[in-house]
Amino acid sequence: MLWQPALDDDYLRLTPAELGARISARRRELGAKLVILGHHYQTDEVIQHADFTGDSLKLSQLAAGQVGGGGAAGGDGDGAKYVIFCGVHFMAETADMLTPEGVRVILPDMSAGCSMADMADYEEAVEAWGLIDAALKGQGFKGRVIPVTYINSTAAIKAFVGQRGGAVCTSSNAQFVMEWALRGGDEPLKAGERVKVLFLPDQHLGRNTSAKLGIEVATGTVVYDPRKTARGEPLGGATPEQLMSATTILWAGHCSVHKLFKPEHVLAIRAAEAELPRAERTKVLVHPECLREVVELADLDGSTEFIIKTLRSAAPGSRWAVGTEVHLVMREAAEAAKRGVSVRILSECQCLCTTMYRIDQPHVLWVLDELAKVELGVKGARVPNVVSVHPEARRWGLVALERMLRLSVPIELLGKGGGATGGAKAAGGGAGNSGARGSRGGQRARGERPVESATAAAGVAED
Asked: Does residue 423 form part of some domain?
């Protein structure tokens, strides 16, 4: 987690209404030089200022279509040059990789990190790679290990994966990316060759995806825990035999929000409604970052975009209990209530993304004030909180992203919105939409990075 200096008290004394008014005024001043992205897990106070709302990769792709000018290298002068990402650090990194050089990607609060992303450290991944390779070769393994990383990972981990023949995945396309890896990735399998997948950093998404592919969880997956390696346990707590028999090697990471949903939360709903006709019972809809036991008990599981699509197409009178971040659930519950659909969170615990919550109106206004000073040429003014990925990490991270994007279903980006694929165990997939607001038009000029052509053609939902 990075350090964020405290704001001046003047920002903290303003009321939400005053903050909102000042943000709107600054936005009018900056005009088309600025794009604000709001992740689904943000509070309503922040979301109201977003040009685009969606999951992190989708937002980055949409941002890439809105920048390219206004001082950006290779631009034509008509695109935004500042992207304010109201999300967490790894999301801003992805946006920086997908937007042209010269575009500044800004995180309003640099302490808004992601505990899951932080659970996969680059040096630990390099160490694990060597240990796993040695353990397998020592048992006569004839094949390859291909790494796959969830989009919720640092740029360094994406680069680690890209450099070793692997790809990024999202919660909606993880199954397709894993199938690609098990076929040998970009290098087709040779006769008699086997492939194992090292899945980072979310063990639960990796486990649930493996199960959907028909891999026996008990014997076909094994957990590698870098903390156990640091304590002197060989192979992160796994045995050489477990590594040899496993198809999927799961990194011991998790989402701090989704781990709060437990099987007993689902069972309590089932017990309370046991006497109701099946059609009147609450349907349980969860994110695949949840525990395997929760996903098995749920009626449906899928990405954030799939969850939103499912709720927005739900029949009047239906009832839903949703296992994902509370701000998203409450926003969807308010929307659904207008259509006679009942939506509640699966657990009454405080299931919120606490690091995402650090992005608030005072920090957004502070960033806008600083940008206004830069645009006015105020002496000493500088663009604050710029997130910039190291060129080598960008190079290999883009390779991993491009591999994923080549596997995605092409869609048309419609103006500021556009579709995004979703997934569920009942249907095996679906389609959703990213929301957009504001007055900007359709896609603008892109920069020269090779991934841009892929992002123009592919929409991928995640988180």
From this structure: yes
Token pair 């839903």 is found at 320
> How many domains does the structure of the chain reveal?
3
Compute how many other C-beta atoms are within 10 angstroms of the C-beta atom of residue 144: 20
Helix (H, G, I), strand (E, B) or coil at 364: helix
Q: Which two tokens stand for residue 463?
A: 């988180």
Residue 100 binned pLDDT confidence (cut-offs 50, 70, 90): confident
pTM (2 d.p.): 0.82
CA–CA separation, 417 and 440 (whole Å): 11
Burial of 93 (C-beta count, 10 Å sphere; 0-12/13-18/19+): buried
CA dihedral 448, 451, 453, 459 (to 10 degrees): -140
At 291-325, the pLDDT tens digits run 999 999 999 999 988 999 999 999 999 999 999 98
In this structure, are strands 419-422 and 342-345 parallel, antiparallel, or unpaired? unpaired
Q: Are 80 and 154 in a shared domain? A: no
Start-end of H helices in 383-450:
391-407
Residue 366 pLDDT exceeds 70? yes
Beta strands 82-86; 104-106: pairing state: parallel
> What's the CATH number where 289 sits?
3.40.50.10800
Q: What are 222-231's pLDDT values in tens digits? A: 999 999 999 9
Q: Characterise 144 by phi-psi region: left (phi > 0), alpha (psi -120 to 50), beta (else).
A: beta
DSSP assignment of 125-165 equals: HHHHHHHHHHHHHTTT--EEEEEEEESSS-HHHHHHHHHTT
Which DSSP letter does residue 222 get? E
Residue 143 has pLDDT above 70, yes or no: yes
Burial 319-337 (b: 16+ CB within 10 A, else e): bbbbbbbbbbbbbbbeebe
Q: 242 is in which domain, residue-wise?
A: 117-251
What phi and psi, each to the nearest 5 degrees, are found at residue 454?
A: -75, -40
**Interacting residues of 9 by C-beta distance below 8 A, sequence separation 6+:** none
